[in-house]
């Protein structure tokens, strides 16, 4: 075992064991006559200096031990590894162990519960020049534990860092704290212990019971200042700073018992308490460290009439009595204060005069019923104070009829104005859209229903307003920009409608305007045109500028509907028709539009059952090598043959399926049918023909697309390369982790991923480069204009450049002429499809085409 120096060698001044031999040698030198006199004199001075130094060292060592053992608390000296170098007498007594069992051992011999790295925080603190303090449990020689508070400091000795640790026994303090806590709990008086900032430190059960908080788990929350009002013995409102504990903290002196009234607003309950406080000082402190507040409940002792009246004033409750036979009305001072009168109210008529007309009649009728049937009175009524300010009252009363002096009604009168105003604020909030400050959906439905039920209101029109291209701004710039746009749009609509219409944000980017047509039949159209005019100016967000327009539908009552929902639905239908046809326009609802709605509903009804009735089929349009004319793949196109509606083109029913959500089920059928057909062609010897399938954005969101594709490929035994999925540009803006994960899984399956109709919608290169896609499809919308239309040529060149720069494949859709084919070849587009090559072909005809091409 490595030798570690004991205390005599390390912590205290060292004693040199060779000093005596050196002194003897020096004395011999002094007596050596053969040496020169000067040398003997030098040796003599050295001998005396060595004797003096040895004496000083011994004196220092004795002083160290005297001081070390005089400390009444256990003191240990450790090296920086935690080995005990020395222990004083108080330590041996406290740990009940001899010194030799501790010195030279690790500190764990005194505290076996210390963690392995317990010295790290100690040394970090000491390195900062600070004292490290911790409460732990030390162990005596017999194995018993006792709590200590250890103060550690660092010092250097002989170039080594050491630690001196003083342990103060906390056993007595802990016992005192326990007895103190037990004493608090048995006291029948309430006790609150507050710190020097007036914050609650401790309380007892009696305090909670007296203050009515025995059922409350969070006493701090129960004592929330906003829930309490306080008065002195005379009923004068006082602040927290005037309470006895606050005075004691300020002055440092005890306060004598004072009677105070505490009113708890949530419970509407007043308690009278006798309160006193005493300060607690830290040793040597001049300001109180804590304050003890003692109180008892004296409510029952203070129930005399004067204090009861002042307590009622605190709760804004006044008393009244009406002698019916004499029509004499008596009111307490608080009741008069509530009404704002400085003189007596003489009769019940004076009280009724303070109320609004409707509530005046209600109270008069209730008073008569109370007299006639001895029925209690309890009404909330609205009126005005004497100064004209608004007033709400709760009036309660009971009749006393069998009295010799006649009939009287006695009761209370409470000021509930604040509560009513809060309720009104909540009502307004409940009716208001928090973003724009306009009415919200529920409020508009209520207002519209009220007006349509009023026979005197006359004609009503609803304008349904939808912002064009709002989603693009919201998706590209984020929701904050979208909120700014909605606010700006709301302001423009409000300015355009002025005072002629009631305006609401009906949801998302949709607004409603309700106006009266009784006196002006042209008002709806005039307001709509003013709104469209207001949207001609672009919207600006930071450095971006957007042309946002509006599409408006108008429906009139009772012509277009006699119920709110019907009228709004028809206005919505007119708006939708306007958006579909032109955008930035208005459309009135009409019988023709109603027929169109019915036709749409009819299509949607049949569409919902089409897959179950095997009414769908797929045709396959070849994708052709533009240079050699060979078919390299096929795009699956859906067709719908209904026994009532006949042959339906995709552009007639896909939009309906997107709206209703049926596109998800239809898309799943298309995917499985395309895979089945590809497997059938493979089994017929045509090899693996890649089939492209369009995937709806709704389908992308509503199901586990990657799992659906994996299952379809597995079921038909196809590799992923046999399938191409075409997505609309909308997926580009969904830069969500789920979107990226789905694309990554599909790509791992070997599926070809393409963005369809690129350039038409939400194109954003920032998003395009993040998705693991294989190619783009150039929209027919631009292909049909080449090579004659310069704008279409420019778009096609731009898209081709994007594809090349990102290393993506490119397919041109809608090629119908030879000049278009040549242009695409010159542009570097390798693959195309369109009527120049073939329309969508039935599976058998597509197979014959493939067979013929091979021959």
UniProtKB/TrEMBL annotation:
**Every PAC domain range:** 377-428
Gene3D superfamilies named in the record: 2.10.70.100, 3.30.70.270, EAL domain (3.20.20.450), PAS domain (3.30.450.20)
Locate the transmembrane regions by residue number. Answer: none
Can you give the residue ranges of the GGDEF domain? 458-591
Sequence ranges assigned to domain EAL in this UniProt record: 600-854
- Residues in coiled coil: none
Record Pfam families: EAL (PF00563), GGDEF (PF00990), PAS_4 (PF08448), PAS_9 (PF13426)
What residue stretches are annotated with the PAS domain?
60-113, 176-212
According to UniProt, the name of this protein is EAL domain-containing protein
């Amino acid at each position: 075992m490595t030798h570690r120096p004991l205390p005599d060698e390390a912590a205290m001044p060292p004693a040199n064991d060779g000093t005596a031999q050196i002194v003897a040698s020096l004395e011999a030198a002094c007596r050596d006559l053969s040496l020169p006199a000067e040398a003997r004199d030098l040796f003599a001075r050295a001998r005396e200096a060595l004797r003096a130094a040895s004496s000083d060292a011994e004196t220092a060592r004795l002083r160290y031990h005297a001081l070390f053992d005089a400390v009444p608390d256990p003191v240990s000296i450790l090296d920086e590894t935690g080995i005990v170098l020395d222990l004083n007498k108080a330590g041996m007594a406290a740990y009940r162990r001899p010194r030799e069992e501790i010195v030279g051992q690790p500190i764990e011999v005194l505290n076996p519960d210390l963690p392995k790295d317990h010295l790290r925080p100690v040394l970090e603190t000491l390195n900062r020049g600070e004292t490290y303090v911790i409460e732990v449990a030390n162990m005596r020689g017999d194995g018993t534990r006792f709590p200590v508070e250890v103060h550690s400091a660092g010092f250097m000795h002989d170039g080594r860092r050491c630690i001196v640790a003083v342990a103060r026994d906390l056993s007595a303090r802990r016992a005192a704290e326990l007895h103190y806590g037990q004493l608090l709990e048995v006291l029948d008086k309430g006790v609150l212990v507050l710190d020097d900032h007036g914050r609650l430190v401790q309380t007892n059960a009696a305090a909670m019971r007296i203050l009515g908080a025995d059922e409350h788990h969070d006493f701090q929350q129960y004592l929330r200042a906003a829930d309490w009002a306080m008065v002195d013995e005379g009923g004068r409102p006082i602040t927290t700073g005037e309470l006895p504990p606050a005075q004691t903290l300020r002055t440092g002196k005890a306060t004598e018992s004072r009677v105070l009234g505490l009113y708890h607003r949530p419970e509407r309950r007043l308690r009278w308490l006798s309160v006193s406080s005493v300060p607690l000082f830290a040793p040597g402190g001049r300001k109180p460290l804590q304050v003890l507040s003692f109180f008892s409940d004296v409510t029952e002792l203070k129930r005399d009439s004067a204090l009861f009246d002042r307590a009622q004033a605190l709760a804004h409750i006044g008393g009244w009595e009406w002698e019916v036979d004499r029509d004499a009305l008596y009111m307490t001072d608080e009741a008069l204060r509530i009404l704002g009168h400085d003189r007596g109210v003489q009769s019940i008529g004076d009280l009724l005069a303070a109320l609004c007309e409707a509530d005046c009649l209600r109270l008069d009728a209730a008073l008569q019923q109370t007299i006639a049937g001895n029925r209690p009175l309890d009404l909330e009524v609205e009126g005005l104070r004497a100064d004209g300010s608004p007033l709400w009252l709760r009036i309660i009363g009971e009749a006393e009829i069998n009295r010799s002096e006649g009939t009287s009604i006695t009761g209370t009168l409470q000021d509930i104005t604040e509560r009513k105003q809060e309720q009104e604020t909540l009502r307004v909030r409940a009716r208001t859209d928090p973003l724009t400050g306009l009415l919200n959906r529920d409020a508009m439905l209520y207002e519209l229903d009220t007006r349509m039920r009023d026979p005197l209101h006359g004609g009503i029109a609803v304008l349904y307003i939808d912002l064009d291209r709002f989603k693009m701004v919201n998706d590209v710039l984020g929701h904050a920009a979208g909120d700014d746009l909605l606010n700006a749009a709301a302001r423009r609509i409000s300015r355009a409608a002025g005072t002629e219409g009631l305006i609401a944000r009906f949801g998302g980017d949709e607004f409603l305007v309700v106006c009266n047509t009784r006196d002006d039949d042209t008002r709806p159209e005039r307001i709509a045109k003013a709104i469209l005019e207001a949207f001609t100016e672009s919207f600006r967000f930071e450095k971006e500028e957007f042309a946002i327009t509006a599409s408006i539908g108008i429906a009139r009552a009772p012509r277009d509907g006699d119920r709110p929902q019907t009228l709004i639905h028809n206005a919505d239908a007119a708006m939708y028709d306007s958006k579909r046809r032109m955008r930035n326009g208005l459309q009135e609802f009409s019988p023709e539009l109603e027929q169109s709605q019915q036709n749409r509903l009819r299509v949607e009804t049949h569409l919902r059952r089409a897959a179950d009735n095997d009414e769908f089929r797929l045709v396959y349009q070849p994708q052709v090598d533009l240079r050699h004319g060979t078919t390299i793949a096929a795009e699956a196109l859906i067709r719908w043959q209904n026994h009532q509606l006949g042959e339906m083109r995709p552009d007639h029913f896909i939009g309906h399926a997107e709206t209703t959500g049926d596109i998800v089920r239809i898309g799943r059928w298309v995917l499985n049918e395309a895979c089945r057909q590809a497997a059938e062609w493979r089994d017929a010897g045509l090899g693996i023909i890649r089939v492209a399938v369009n995937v709806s954005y709704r389908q992308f969101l509503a199901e586990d697309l990657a799992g659906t594709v994996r299952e379809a490929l597995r079921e038909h035994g196809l590799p992923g390369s046999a399938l191409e999925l075409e997505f609309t540009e909308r997926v580009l803006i969904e830069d969500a982790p789920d979107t990226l994960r789905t694309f990554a899984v599909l790509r791992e399956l070997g599926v070809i991923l393409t963005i369809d109709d690129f350039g038409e919608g939400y194109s954003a290169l920032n998003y395009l480069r993040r998705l693991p896609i294989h190619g783009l499809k150039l929209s027919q919308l631009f292909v049909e204009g080449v090579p004659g239309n310069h704008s279409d040529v420019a778009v096609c060149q731009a898209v081709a450049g994007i594809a090349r720069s990102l290393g993506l494949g490119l397919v041109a859709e809608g090629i119908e002429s030879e000049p278009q084919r040549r242009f695409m070849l010159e542009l570097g587009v390798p693959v195309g499809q369109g009527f120049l090559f073939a329309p969508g072909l039935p599976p058998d005809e597509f197979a014959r085409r493939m067979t013929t091409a091979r021959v």
